[in-house]
Design a protein that fits this description.
Strand content: 15-25%
Largest sheet: 7 strands, mixed
Structural class: alpha/beta
Number of helices: 14
CATH topology of the largest domain: Rossmann fold
CATH superfamily of the largest domain: Response regulator
CATH architecture of the largest domain: 3-Layer(aba) Sandwich
Distance between the termini: 82 Å
Length: about 425
């Protein structure tokens, strides 16, 4: 075919696209998303895969429509390793990594953000300094809300697009309270990693359970890096505890679980840490996990839930991508949802966050869409994603009990697929 014929066809196609209202631009400038976090942590590695999956889906549809520009723009991810999830890394090192990424890459928004709560707390002033719209989806400390409420105008660019420790501890308490309702249990022993988020979750669980009528017969904070829990577990045995709650994220916590099993501690067990909340955990621990309760934070992130349709889609897409099974799924779906939260806000606003961050904040505050863990909305007074018990009204946290190799949803009641069962060794 002659060159002139090809040219006429090309012009005709472009004219048709314009007539249909479809923007035609060969190489639009990408919307840049910055992800400064700790890639030492499996949770951060899986969160990156989730973000890349969402970006690929959106870019396959041409990108995000930016109405004021009249074009669809693709998404691009840039990263920086804050190393804050590595033992001994100072907070200042994490801050330098975030600062460098913002200054050099000039992202339009930040997603995920530093892993460790202590580093995220320090990052709040950088977010304010650069007016950097941030959808933070890992760090759990309630102190971030305290900082925001101390000066909402200064910190308005920060949003937590996931759970927080108070939500986590409260949901854990309500799950454990099933043992009181069903089996008359009422004695609690807590082992909590001595970090901001874990202590906050433990404190919230303790307060809630005591309000339900439980007695806390032991509360043991443990330093990051602790690798022998036998003395603490002996205390749990002698205390007469019927429920043991273990919360944290350090790599040595599985030792606590193994010692609990080998020492035959006669309690039900609620494990609030990473490696037992993954579908692959059964391959590592097998029948030792039977009857153990776990909670991978937002509903549907650890395993699909029938009452959360987007969770089924999310896990199906993950498998289709042939991504590795998650070692730590706790907030991975939050990272995925964060990209769609931004897409939704950009399309409603008509401009990208970096063009007018002060104005863009209002569009994020008005978020209302379905995500993996239910309906996504933010509390305007705290910029915290709302988690409650009804997925039609808010996002939900789901607790599971391991049963013969499967994580079965047991809480909350309106999404549960089975009731809590009593382990044979405490009957």
């Amino acid at each position: 075919m002659k060159r002139g014929s090809w040219l006429r066809i090309a012009v005709g196609v472009v004219s048709l696209f314009f007539w249909l209202g479809i923007p035609v631009h060969a190489a639009e400038k990408p919307i840049v998303l910055g992800m400064p976090t700790s890639f030492f942590q499996p949770l951060c590695k899986s969160s990156k895969l989730a973000i890349e999956m969402a970006i690929e889906e959106i870019n396959a549809q041409g990108g995000i429509l930016v109405k004021e520009e009249g074009v669809k723009r693709p998404l691009k991810l840039v990263t920086a390793d804050t190393r804050c999830g590595e033992p001994g890394t100072p907070v200042q090192s994490a801050l330098m990594a975030v600062d460098k990424l913002i200054a050099e890459e000039k992202p339009d928004a930040i997603v995920v953000a530093p892993f460790r709560s202590e580093a995220m707390v320090a990052t709040m002033d950088l977010i304010a300094k650069y007016k950097m719209v941030t959808l933070q989806s890992i760090a759990q400390t309630p102190k971030l809300i305290e900082i925001f409420k101390g000066d909402p105008e200064k910190y308005k660019y920060w949003f937590r697009a996931t759970t927080n420790s108070v939500y986590v501890g409260t949901a854990a308490a309500k799950t454990m309270d099933l043992a009181r309702v069903l089996f008359k249990h009422n004695k609690l022993f807590i082992i909590a990693q001595d970090t901001l988020w874990a202590r906050a979750a433990a404190d919230a669980a303790k307060a809630k359970l005591e309000g339900f009528g439980w007695t806390t017969v032991g509360y043991e904070p443990v330093a990051v890096g602790t690798n022998d829990f036998s003395a603490i577990l002996s205390k749990a045995r002698s205390s007469g505890a019927q429920m043991l709650y273990v919360v944290g994220d350090m790599p040595t916590l599985p030792v606590c679980f193994k010692q609990w099993k080998s020492m035959r501690i006669p309690t039900m067990l609620f494990l609030d840490f990473a490696v037992v909340t993954s579908a692959k955990a059964w391959k590592s621990y097998g029948e030792d996990l039977d009857y153990v309760m776990v909670m991978p934070f937002p509903g549907g992130t650890g395993a699909p839930v029938k009452a959360l349709p987007k969770s089924i889609e999310f896990h199906k897409k993950w498998q289709e991508k042939k991504y590795p099974d998650m070692d730590d799924p706790r907030t991975v779906s939050s990272a995925y949802d964060a990209i769609y939260i931004l897409k939704d806000a950009i399309e409603r606003a008509g401009f990208v966050p970096s063009k007018d961050p002060d104005k863009f904040v209002g569009f994020l505050e008005a978020t209302d869409l379905e995500g993996v863990s239910g309906r996504i909305k933010f509390d305007k007074s705290s910029h915290q994603q709302i988690f409650d018990g009804d997925p039609k009204e808010s996002s939900v946290i789901v607790s599971y009990q391991w049963r013969a190799g499967k994580m079965v949803p047991i809480y909350p009641e309106n999404v549960a697929e089975a009731k809590l069962e009593l382990a044979p060794w405490v009957k």
